[in-house]
Write a structure and sequence with these properties.
The complex is a heterodimer of chains A (305) and B (221).
Chain A lengths: L1 H14 L1 H37 L2 E6 L6 H10 L3 E7 L1 H12 L4 H4 L11 E6 L5 H15 L4 E5 L2 H43 L1 H9 L4 H45 L10 H23 L7 H6 L1
Helix pairs in contact in A: 1-2, 1-9, 2-7, 2-9, 2-10, 7-9, 7-10, 9-10
Chain B lengths: L1 E10 L3 E11 L4 E5 L6 H8 L7 E6 L2 E2 L8 H5 L2 E4 L11 H12 L3 H14 L15 H13 L5 E5 L7 H16 L3 E5 L3 H5 L4 E6 L2 E7 L1
Parallel strand pairs in B: 3-8, 3-9, 6-7, 7-8
Antiparallel strand pairs in B: 1-2, 1-4, 4-5, 9-10
Helix pairs in contact in B: 3-4, 3-5, 4-5, 5-6
């Protein structure tokens, strides 16, 4: 079964090398853009997940706070809390002085320094990032804010919300881009197959006249679409990898501004498999649309009349 | 084996290509169809090989009613007949062997059988030594022999030959006719269109004449 298909494909490549090559290049470019979009999506999401893994919350208390038993009980009962710690005004002051010591050495020994820092509870969570879990954190923060004596609850919400909004926007726009590119790839494959068909019209007619069935004529062209999509998507993985390696240091230094602990990674095996699968499927579908009206058993008559 | 009953074929125009054709051909017969250019020979053969649908009438060939034949049945019907065309209709990018083996491969025969049967028919038409050549490397007569070999390799009951000597010189024409005689002697029904009257006269065969789409006379030569 495979041998005649491969022979057909080899014949097409020999006879229409330039056209086939152009198709592979255009498809590879298309799938490379899709691969890079997947790559950016994967790493943006990874940053969010890594943030989710290290998420912590500061519950700042005012000076009159005297509700610690109820607050501790609430924190303990909350799902996903890994640990929490009380930081008194004095400890907060000391931590602050330790952090700024190298910039303002005099501050450490300034006896007139009035401590403006509030006492707080520092809460660490053990949850992995997801939008639903982030919403739980937001809800939990609101509940804590309702406690009398709680001045502010901080968990880097502005940064995360802005970042999550960027990720959301990217996901939507890249989804649209991928849709457009995949639709375009159907036309690219279709155009190549249409060309193959029109250049082999005589052969198709002869095959019909000696008793080929509809599908035995169509399948080689569908296989051709499959191979074009498969090869192009494999090449796109290589191109995406080269682009990733080339830009890695630049991107990591950029991401490092946001948080140095984040490390970018290449597409997972699963994603690579999905890209190759998408390429192959769209190759098949693009070719299928071209061949559905190719052979009706009476095409020889239609070609003549 | 072949039964035409009140068959008409009209092309847009309208042009009446076949008009009330009634025809019966029995198994094992060799029949010539003669007539001038444009008389309807080719149309008759195209209808007979399910290349064209008749406008009306009934055509039974090898058990298939060609006026009612379903689209998916056409390939299976075509496997029951062998057709030789004036312009050979060989695949230019495949060797002589590959061209002849096609009907067997299409039918899904085993590779070993395809090899053996194709080699056998190549021997019969005297082209075994040219099996790896491309059609354009052969003479016209050799190409026609390849076309005949391809039409016969799957052992059809009927061989339809549309002007098989139309592009050949007299010597090659005789050679092709000898080959068709040989095929007929092996039991295959042969229906051969030609406008070469001399060639027909030299063969003692049943002859049908067609003119303006009408079968004019039936002569037993």
């Amino acid at each position: 079964m495979l041998n005649p298909l491969l022979k057909h494909f080899a014949r097409i490549w020999r006879q229409h090398f330039a056209l086939q090559m152009t198709t592979v290049i255009v498809l590879s470019g298309t799938f490379s853009v899709i691969g890079i979009s997947f790559l950016i999506h994967q790493n943006l999401t990874k940053v969010l997940t890594q943030w989710g893994n290290s998420i912590s919350m500061s519950v700042f208390l005012d000076d009159e706070f005297n509700n610690s038993d109820k607050l501790i009980s609430k924190i303990k009962k909350s799902e996903g809390v890994a640990s929490f710690e009380y930081v008194s005004k004095e400890k907060a002051s000391q931590l602050f002085k330790d952090q700024v010591e190298s910039y303002i050495p005099d501050l450490v020994f300034d006896s007139e320094f009035k401590n403006p820092l509030p006492a707080s509870y520092e809460i660490k969570f053990d949850r992995n990032w997801s939008k639903e879990k982030y919403n739980e954190v937001v809800r939990f923060a609101k509940e804590l804010m309702d406690f009398k004596g709680v001045e502010e609850v901080s968990y880097g919400q502005n940064w995360v919300e802005n970042y999550a909004a960027v990720v959301d926007k990217f996901n939507h726009s890249s989804g649209l881009l991928i849709f457009v590119l995949l639709t375009g790839s159907l036309f690219v494959v279709g155009n190549s197959i249409r060309n193959s068909i029109s250049q082999r019209r005589d052969e198709i007619e002869i095959l019909e006249l000696i008793g080929s069935t509809k599908w035995s004529i169509r399948i080689p062209y569908i296989f051709e679409g499959f191979v074009l999509g498969f090869i192009a998507s494999l090449i796109s993985i290589i191109v995406t990898y080269l682009v990733f390696n080339w830009q890695l240091s630049v991107i990591e230094s950029g991401v490092g501004i946001v948080g140095g602990q984040y490390h970018l990674s290449f597409l997972s095996f699963k994603t690579q498999f999905i890209i190759v699968l998408l390429g192959s499927i769209f190759g098949v579908v693009g070719a299928y649309f071209c061949v559905t009206k190719l052979s009706t058993g009476w095409t020889a008559h239609q070609a003549e009349s | 084996m072949i039964d035409f009953s009140h068959v008409y074929k009209t092309y847009p125009g309208p042009v009446q290509a076949l008009s009330n054709v009634n025809l019966k051909i029995q198994k094992g017969e060799f029949i010539f169809l003669t007539g001038p250019s444009g008389s309807g020979k080719t149309t008759l053969f195209k209808v007979l090989s399910a290349y064209l649908k008749p406008s009306s009438g009934r055509i039974i060939v090898s058990g298939y009613d060609l006026n009612k034949i379903k689209e998916f049945e056409v390939p299976y019907f075509r496997r029951k007949i062998g057709v030789v065309y004036q312009d050979f209709k060989l695949l230019k990018d495949r060797s002589v062997f590959e061209n002849i083996a096609l009907p067997l491969e299409i039918r899904g025969d085993k590779t070993s059988y395809v090899q053996a049967r194709t080699s056998d028919i190549l021997e019969q038409v005297g082209l075994y030594f040219k099996k790896n050549q491309l059609p354009q490397q052969l003479s016209g007569g050799e190409q026609q022999r390849v076309a005949i070999a391809r039409a016969l390799v799957h052992q059809p009951g009927i061989l339809i030959a549309d002007e098989p000597t139309g592009n050949l010189d007299p010597d090659l024409s005789e050679e092709i006719m000898d080959l068709l005689d040989k095929v007929n002697a092996q039991g295959t029904t042969v229906f051969c269109a030609t406008h070469d009257h001399e060639l027909v006269k030299r063969r003692a065969k049943k002859v049908l004449t067609i003119q303006s789409g009408v079968i004019m006379e039936k002569v037993n030569a």
